[in-house]
Amino acid sequence: MKTLNFFLVFFIVASGVFYFYFKTRQFRTSHVFPIRKKMFASKAGSFLGSLLFFFGVNQMLLFQGTITYVVAAIFILFGLYVFIFNLKATNHYKRFVEEETRLNEN
Q: What pLDDT, on a 0 to 100 scale, did the predictor assign at position 1?
């Protein structure tokens, strides 16, 4: 149980770090590249969704109780929804980043 908790905490922290990394990349990207900014925002959102998912699973394993299970299930479902939605958005925007770069070379 401690090993599983260690891995979940590692994934929670890693998700938080990657969320802040891509959020910073979004803010530091020039306004000339709006599609790239949206891609970084959706990548940050997908890591935020994974953070919510892993936090919900961790809470479900640490504490027992009906209210804990309900709240953890909400975190898990909402985290999965946010992750999948932003993963699809990232894949959508990735197709246009190269074209945007080529158009802004002038």
A: 81
Q: What is the pTM of this model?
A: 0.91
**HSE (CB half, 13 Å, CA atoms) of 87?**
9
* CA separation, residue 76 to residues 4, 17, 22, 91 (Å): 17, 19, 22, 22
Rounded CA-CA distance 29/27 in Å is 6
Buried b / exposed e over 66-100, threshold 16 CB at 10 Å, is eeeeeebeebbeebeebbeebbebbeebeeeeeee
Provide the pLDDT confidence category of residue 105 given band limits of 50, 70 and 90: confident
Residue 56 binned pLDDT confidence (cut-offs 50, 70, 90): very high
Helix H segments across 1-106?
Answer: 2-28, 34-62, 66-103
**Which residue do the tokens 């770069």 mark?**
101
